[in-house]
Amino acid sequence: MKKTVRGFLFNRIEKMGDKEYNHIGCEGEDEEFGHFLASFVPKIGMKRKVRITIETLEPEEEGLHEEEKLDQKELASVIDTSETKPEWNPDPKGYFTIKPFFSQNKVFVRYYDSSGNLKYTFAGVTTTQIIQEIVKRGLISRLDHAAYLGKEIEKALIALRNNLHYTQDEELRVE
Hints:
single chain; 175 residues; alpha+beta; 2 domains; 3-stranded antiparallel beta sheet; two-stranded antiparallel sheet; extended
């Protein structure tokens, strides 16, 4: 059987119990991709010898650099934020410090109340999980603070995954 399908390969660390596994997976551009791959090994525990050829595509082959067409009405109403100067307004509920801990393979986020007292330390491997726990406890009162926190946690996670230096509020250097 020979068939061409398009999809994406990914590599990530998954934790199951107290063990970590390097998980290489794939996802398709449509439902057919998963069904196609599953057809090779239809039963759990079954082994089958296969030959799979993987061809990496350049971004331009996939149309990833194609600019979307904007109609004139939309173009006329675009809000250009490139000159907007960031403002810093402290959240009255407190502040956070963010640091990747390579020995733990997690990002640690410390929450300090408005008096500067450490109240919580969160540790996690995804931005969503960390933010959900912070929101659940009502520790953020400003939307811009939540957006900032998500951005900084994600930068710390990228640094952690790629063994890069991370300093909060600084550009992440990928060299």
